[in-house]
From TrEMBL:
<dbReference type="GO" id="GO:0005524">
    <property type="term" value="F:ATP binding"/>
</dbReference>
<keyword id="KW-0547">Nucleotide-binding</keyword>
<comment type="subunit">
    <text>Heterotrimer of A, B and C subunits.</text>
</comment>
<dbReference type="GO" id="GO:0050567">
    <property type="term" value="F:glutaminyl-tRNA synthase (glutamine-hydrolyzing) activity"/>
</dbReference>
<dbReference type="GO" id="GO:0016740">
    <property type="term" value="F:transferase activity"/>
</dbReference>
<comment type="function">
    <text>Allows the formation of correctly charged Asn-tRNA(Asn) or Gln-tRNA(Gln) through the transamidation of misacylated Asp-tRNA(Asn) or Glu-tRNA(Gln) in organisms which lack either or both of asparaginyl-tRNA or glutaminyl-tRNA synthetases. The reaction takes place in the presence of glutamine and ATP through an activated phospho-Asp-tRNA(Asn) or phospho-Glu-tRNA(Gln).</text>
</comment>
<keyword id="KW-0067">ATP-binding</keyword>
<keyword id="KW-0436">Ligase</keyword>
<dbReference type="InterPro" id="IPR003837">
    <property type="entry name" value="GatC"/>
</dbReference>
<keyword id="KW-0808">Transferase</keyword>
<dbReference type="GO" id="GO:0050566">
    <property type="term" value="F:asparaginyl-tRNA synthase (glutamine-hydrolyzing) activity"/>
</dbReference>
<dbReference type="GO" id="GO:0070681">
    <property type="term" value="P:glutaminyl-tRNAGln biosynthesis via transamidation"/>
</dbReference>
<dbReference type="GO" id="GO:0006412">
    <property type="term" value="P:translation"/>
</dbReference>
<dbReference type="Pfam" id="PF02686">
    <property type="entry name" value="GatC"/>
</dbReference>
<dbReference type="InterPro" id="IPR036113">
    <property type="entry name" value="Asp/Glu-ADT_sf_sub_c"/>
</dbReference>
<keyword id="KW-0648">Protein biosynthesis</keyword>
<comment type="similarity">
    <text>Belongs to the GatC family.</text>
</comment>
Length: 95
């Protein structure tokens, strides 16, 4: 896939980037190089590769899905300088 200059201008407009004519021509070459690299990645056979969370084998840490004693809202907001109905009160910062 090859990117033409009109596509570069359109991408720049969508990204809200001001691009001069010289910059657009340079970006055209860069985008074509990036798309060429992505096209090379598409040729790699990954049919036997399992998805992984890290480059080192590890299991994901999961918490127990169990019911706990709730109703500790008073303990949660105990150190807050101002609370109301178990909610933190903060000063208004936006008019």
């Amino acid at each position: 896939m090859s990117v033409d200059i009109d596509t570069v201008r359109r991408v720049a407009r969508l990204a809200r980037i001001a691009v001069t004519e010289a910059e657009a021509e340079a970006m055209q070459g860069e985008l074509n190089a990036i798309l060429g690299f992505v096209q090379q990645l598409d040729e790699v056979d990954v049919s036997g590769v399992e998805p992984m969370t890290s480059v080192t084998p590890m299991t994901m840490k999961k918490r127990q899905d169990k019911v706990t004693s709730g109703n500790i809202a008073d303990d949660i907001v105990a150190n807050s300088p101002a609370t109301e109905d178990h909610f933190f009160m903060v000063p208004k910062v936006v008019e």
